[in-house]
Amino acid sequence: MPVPTDFRFAGDRMEEDCGVFGVYDAEGSLHVGEAAYFGLYSLQHRGQESAGIAVTDGSGIRYVRNKGLVPEVFDQETIQALTGRIAIGHVRYSTFGVSDAINAQPLVARYKHGNLALAHNGNLINAPALRSKLEDYGAIFQTTVDTEVILNLIARLSSDGLEEAIHKMMKSVRGSYALVMMTETQLIGIRDPFGIRPLALGRIGEDSYVLASESCAFDAVGAEFVRDVHPGEIVIIDENGLRSIQMPVTCRSKLCVFEFVYFARTDSMIDGVGVYAARKAAGMRLAAHDDVSADMVIAVPDSAVPAAIGYAEKSGIPYGEGLAKNRYVGRTFIQPEQGMREIGVRTKLNALTKNVKGKRIVMVDDSIVRGTTSRKIVDMLRLAGAREVHMRVSSPIVMHPCFFGIDTPSEEELLGSHRTCEQMREYIGADSLKFLSLHDLLKTVEGSGCGFCSGCFDGDYPMPLSESESCDLAIE
Fold first, then answer.
1. Catalytic residue status for 18
2. Of 18, 216, 402, 453, which is the active-site residue?
3. Cβ atoms within 10 Å, residue 266
4. DSSP assignment of 235-250
5. Helix 127-136 / helix 147-156 crossing angle, nearest 10 deg
6. Cβ-based neighbours of 151, under 8 Å, separated by 6 or more
7. What is the pTM of this model?
8. CATH code 3.60.20.10 region(s) in the chain
9. Could you report the per-residue pLDDT of 300-342, keeping only the tens digit for each?
10. What's the CATH architecture for 273-458?
């Protein structure tokens, strides 16, 4: 598995999901391939395994996709050749399917009504059951990703047209999905009925539109944020403009709350809530219930910085930098052998000795998964001369795995699933350890007007996991 761009060892984090992007150029004034490139570059934090762009000028679909970061997959010559009126793109971290170039997206296929390209962020819990059923009907799969199940379903259910096929697909699949899809004449965005994964709509000029996993991608292409795509909504953009179809939604939305804890970029807005503001508020709420005496608050870079700033502001303890991150350690960084682990973590992260020596430190991080990295950072700070290290986590204890698009270790491997807070503190080696309560975390996103999935914290998933065997599928 490729090494993420973050400093943590693979497996000791809540891994990214994926990022999707789409652009429709109504006025013929955009280079859609270039727009998709910069849009994906802004979403790179959501997946560093593979990247791809598909374009159409109304006659066929051309695409480039491969393993690697966005600038590794695309050079200037490649991007300049990706011209047309519509483009979609994808950055991937594999939560379903092996790490292989063949699983890179967008997926492209020809069906009875023309060509389709599809990019997917999320995870279908009933993908294996649907795949097996489709194979019974004679389907042949080229990849191991659940995205191909969606593509195959739409193609096979399209006898009454594409829109009806999408409706039937949404009734058949179980799980999370934010989709951008492209035909030779249309750009389509689809969000699952629970709204588990985010999808936003933007506009360039009067009539050109953009779809993206996060609003931060709009700034990169000069687009204006319009709104979030609603749970269960299908957005269709073509020469007639934008049209919305709202599928019946009988459930309260369940946006993944971990988007605000870690995944999303701090300059994004998701379902009406600013990510930076939510993280800072989490830090402030963490400090409001704390009475530790300390000399300095530091953050584990980068996602915990807003929370650490909020903690410092509320507690009155000065904020400072205690950890330096090597930002040039990327996905090709060699995983060290067991005996070199300490050197390996120091290559990615190191303590600022002059800042922490002799001080009582409050170290703020966004989450604890396996706990191995937290343990190494605490050791690192002590070796640098920190007198005390108090760890504060701006989210609740992660006790359960995610089944809806986030790659997490098994429940047995999660530190918080089988240890008390005191046992976790002993394992990490901190002088004290406290977590934000789920109640307080949900208060930080209170203004959204939507519900949230907190399954990784409390086991309350948006849908019964028994639905993984569901296969409500009838192909004419």
1. yes
2. 18
3. 17
4. EEEETTEEEEEE----
5. 40
6. 107, 109, 116, 118
7. 0.90
8. 18-269
9. 998 899 999 999 999 999 999 999 987 665 543 444 444 444 4
10. 3-Layer(aba) Sandwich (3.40)
